[in-house]
Amino acid sequence: MPNPLFDTLFGQHSTSDAEFLQLPGGRSLSYKAFLDRAAQYAGAMTSMGLVVGDRVAVQTAKSPETLAVYAACVQAGLVFLPLNTAYTPAEVAYFVENSGARLVLGDESRRDALATIADRCNAKLETLNADGAGSFPSLAVSFPASFETVPRSEGDLAALLYTSGTTGRSKGAMLSQGNLLSNAQVLRQEWRFTSQDILLHALPIFHTHGLFVATNITLLCGGQMIFLPKFDLDEVITELPRATAMMGVPTFYTRLLGDKRFTKELSAHMRLFVSGSAPLLADTHIQFEERTGHRILERYGMTETNMNTSNPYEGERRAGTVGFPLPGIEVKITDPKTGQTIPNGDIGQIEVHGPNVFQGYWQMPDKTAEELRTDGFFITGDLGMVDEDGYVTIVGRNKDLIISGGYNIYPKEIELILDEQDGVLESAVIGVPHPDFGESVLAVIVAKPDQEPDLDAIAANMTASLARFKQPQQLVLLPELPRNTMGKVQKKALREQFAGTFA
Ligand code: MLC
Ligand code: AMP
After folding, report:
1. Count of CB atoms situated within 10 Å of the CB of 60
2. Smallest CA separation from ligand 1 atom 33, residue
3. Which of 76, 280, 287, 450 could link 42 by a cystine bridge, Cβ 3.0 to 4.6 Å?
């Protein structure tokens, strides 16, 4: 019985001794060894009573074992739910509760906090540490290295990825097997990946970019990954000469350009550098070409849709654009007020349709209906235009969103916490230019009459509730927030006022 995602990405390699992961310290893992481990994990999870469709919440370090949990979930028909390792227990509690996860996998160092959450949500808890040890692998070791793959179809859920919302409440984007598979197939073809490729993988694996784009393509073509725990400039520079391709957020490329060791010679043998998840400045694109002779290939995607557009592999990779709609994917630019398609060259909201578009938000039919039209077009919330040659350019966002180093941060989530702090009347959180992260978080606070909020205490309180990357880098007190005649806060004016803060 078929399981399209498992069969195509993983199953085809089940007896292959070819190398899959190159790991720090000269270690490596073959496809077969990886899949044997995944089979043991699948056996262990089903023995715990998990059944098809159950969610598995995973907040563990980037490791071959975490990747094997992903493979095991696909093989056993479970829904993989990866979580940013920077999330605080307060944040994790929401995801576990909202998703109804049956199993939580976390690092031993967080066991107590996670146990409280798991108990409350009636989920099981097992540990999996960065070094591959933990209660879960200890349990799994006694299971056979083969597992009868659970039949699934392309419409069945494979993963639930949470993405923040403008209301401050995260939404679980339901991704089907078909969503993931179709995108991997299109990208492999478009970017010419083969079994000869060695991808330098320095992205986290709890987001679309590192998990689906980078990993699924490699699995599909039977290539290898140099699997680094995170982006470390020294390690990337050391490993680059062994790779053929790299995928990164713009911060990767600006950091590389900031280092003199990153030369034309160092990247001479590379065939492809891909950038996405945040805008790549045209200037970075140009500098990169001047330094290396390579034109970065920029593409555009989202958690809800995987990849939508890409600059061409052959043909002009145009700086400042995100290229053309991928084969089988339709992009239209519409008037945000009427939803009508507008002419090429005009700026409007970007809508996307295709086999890549997700199945809706987990148990949020109203939110789904707001963003996913009945004709299948998804309203991305990005603003853009298509030029006369068909290149798509993203010019802004129709959603209040900050992207810092490739991580999405929704101001509302932070404002809700700030507004509860002692002495705070109201707040406005904005993204301002940052040389390393592209954008960074700045919070403007207005005090209640005759009160003086303690900014240090507020900053400390944020630490308990919010992942570090979401915490404002600067808190500023203003007598009032700029508003228009309708009373709406003018964030644009604030962004202009504070534009130079991190310059
Ligand atoms: C880390 N920090 C950040 C941050 N990352 N702050 C703001 N924004 C970020 N992105 C903070 C840490 O909390 C810490 O704070 C300090 O910076 C240094 O931590 P670090 O761990 O050493 O940071 P570093 O490893 O340098 O991480 C930066 C980074 C990383 C850019 C390499 O954030 C990263 O890998 N980003 C990629 C995100 C990604 O994969 N996005 C894809 C989303 S999918 P302190 O104060 O404690 O020192 C998607 C769809 C699509 O968008 O199209 O792809
Ligand atoms: P996420 O919700 O984390 O998947 O982030 C998706 C958002 O990232 C998109 O809606 C865009 O706003 C942004 N994004 C992704 N790729 C690009 C890109 N190449 N240029 C500009 N923005 C991008």
Report:
1. 25
2. 405
3. 76
**Burial class of residue 338, CB neighbours in 10 A (0-12, 13-18, 19+):** exposed
Report the chain (503 residues): mean pLDDT per 10 consecutive residues. Answer: 95 97 96 98 98 98 98 98 97 97 98 97 98 98 98 98 84 98 98 98 98 98 98 98 98 98 96 98 96 98 98 97 98 96 96 98 96 96 96 94 96 95 97 97 97 96 94 97 92 96 92
Distance, in Å, from the CA atom of 492 to the CA atom of 447, rounded to the nearest integer, reads 21
Q: Whose CA is nearest to atom 15 of ligand 2?
A: 277
For 249, the token pair is: 């957020």
421's CB contacts (< 8 A; 6+ apart) are: 453, 457, 458, 461
Predicted local confidence at residue 167, as pLDDT: 75
Number of H helices, E strands in the chain: 16, 24
| Torsional sign, CA 16, 208, 6, 124 | positive
Which regions of 50-207 does DSSP assign to beta strands (E)? 55-59, 79-82, 103-106, 124-127, 157-163, 171-176, 198-201
How far is residue 226's CA from residue 199's CA, in Å, rounded to a whole number?
6
The pTM of the full predicted model, rounded to 2 decimals, is 0.97
pLDDT for 92 equals 97
For residue 229, the CA-to-ligand 1 centroid distance in Å is 13
pLDDT at 169: 84
User: Which DSSP category does 414 fall into?
Assistant: H
Residue pair 96/123 in contact by the 8 Å Cβ criterion: yes
Pocket of ligand 1 from Cβ distances under 6 Å: 203-204, 207-210, 230-231, 249, 251, 276-277, 301-303, 404-407, 437, 468-469
Do residues 418 and 429 lie in contact, with contact meaning Cβ atoms separated by under 8 Å?
yes
- Domains and their CATH numbers in the chain: 4-15+28-152 (3.40.50.980), 190-397 (3.40.50.12780), 401-497 (3.30.300.30)
CA terminus-to-terminus distance, the chain: 57
224 C-beta closer than 6 A to ligand 2 = no
Which of 414, 412, 410, 424 minimizes the C-alpha distance to 471? Answer: 414
Give the span between the Cα atoms of 299 and 409, in whole angstroms. 20
Other Cβ atoms less than 10 A from the Cβ of 336: the count is: 12
Distance CA 322, CA 495 (A): 25
Number of the ligand closest to the Cα of 437:
1
**Pocket perturbation via mutation, ligand 1, pick of 183, 352, 407, 463 by most ligand atoms within 8 A of CB:** 407
The per-residue pLDDT for 164 is 82
What DSSP letter does each residue of 58-97 carry, written as one string?
Answer: EE--SSHHHHHHHHHHHHHTPEEEE--TT--HHHHHHHHH
For ligand 1, atom 37, the nearest C-alpha belongs to 406
